[in-house]
Amino acid sequence: MRDFTRKTVLTAAMCGLMVPVAAQDRVEATVQADVVSQYIWRGQDLGGVSVQPTLGVSYKGLSLSAWGSVGLANSADTKEFDLTLSYKVGGLNIGVTDYWFNTPDERYFNYSAHSTSHVFEANVGYDFGPLAVQWYTNFAGNDGANDSGERAYSSYFELSAPFSLAGCDWLAAVGAVPYATDFYADAGGFAVTNVSLKAAKDIRVTDSFSLPLFASVAANPSSGRAYFVAGFTLRP
């Protein structure tokens, strides 16, 4: 799962939004790690201080990335390992993500329908420039249930708008769950679960090294909760 901090590579997060990047004529690699004060994903609290590494390769719009999260302060926090395959052409992007968590089963290679810790999600989105829209739907794995106790095919959609102000890069986002699922807490039907605003700025440390810092204010109107997250990114 991805909050906005992850989206520095894919969004943006992936994050927790996957923002398309321009196609390139050579293979490019991404190696980095975010350190965040709290892991907030689509309006849900998944843990405290965490380190979130990213490893990815991309070529001509096709990208394959691995992303993870582990709590630094509390060993009981969510442990996560995700693999995403995505493709972008023009403003259109599509992708498939295999999310893995350490519950309900810590075995990574358990894909049994009734005990797996994997969740498989498909997404499609379009970046119009001043506004981007993304839709995500779980199609297999440890999905949530609807009010009838059946597989919910849990979904989430988000609108986001980037802009620059006062020397910072900003991203405003609003996300919602369209129908009932217990995969997203407090979503008994249509529910706005994420309203967020993030600012990011590179802080120059030396002539050859800058430290990207970011801070985000987020609220979940459905649960009545609000969060303030800060962090930084380490990359070569």
What does this structure look like?
By secondary structure, this protein is mainly beta. The chain is built from 1 helix and 14 strands; from the N terminus they run αββββββββββββββ. Strands 1-4-5-6-7-8-9-10-11-12-13-14 form a 12-stranded antiparallel β-barrel. The protein is globular, with a radius of gyration of 17 Å. It starts with 6 loop residues before the first helix and ends with a strand.
What is the 3D form?
Answer: globular
Look at the helices and sheets and give the structural class. Answer: mainly beta
Low-pLDDT ranges? 4-22
How much β-strand is present in the residues?
Answer: over 45%
Instruction: Report the sheet with the most strands, covering strand number, pairing sense and barrel closure.
Output: 12 strands, antiparallel, barrel
Physical arrangement of strands within the biggest beta sheet: 1-4-5-6-7-8-9-10-11-12-13-14
Output the radius of gyration: 17 Å
**Overall average pLDDT:** 90
Helix content: under 10%
Q: How many beta-strand elements?
A: 14
Please provide the ordered H/E string of secondary-structure elements.
HEEEEEEEEEEEEEE
The end-to-end span amounts to 24 Å
How many helices? 1
Offer a few descriptive terms:
236 residues; mainly beta; 12-stranded antiparallel barrel; two-stranded antiparallel ribbon; 2% helix; 56% strand
What is this structure's SSE topology?
Blueprint: H1 7-10, E1 28-36, E2 39-41, E3 44-47, E4 50-59, E5 62-71, E6 80-89, E7 92-101, E8 118-127, E9 132-141, E10 155-165, E11 168-177, E12 191-204, E13 210-220, E14 225-234
Antiparallel strand pairs: 1-4, 1-14, 2-3, 4-5, 5-6, 6-7, 7-8, 8-9, 9-10, 10-11, 11-12, 12-13, 13-14
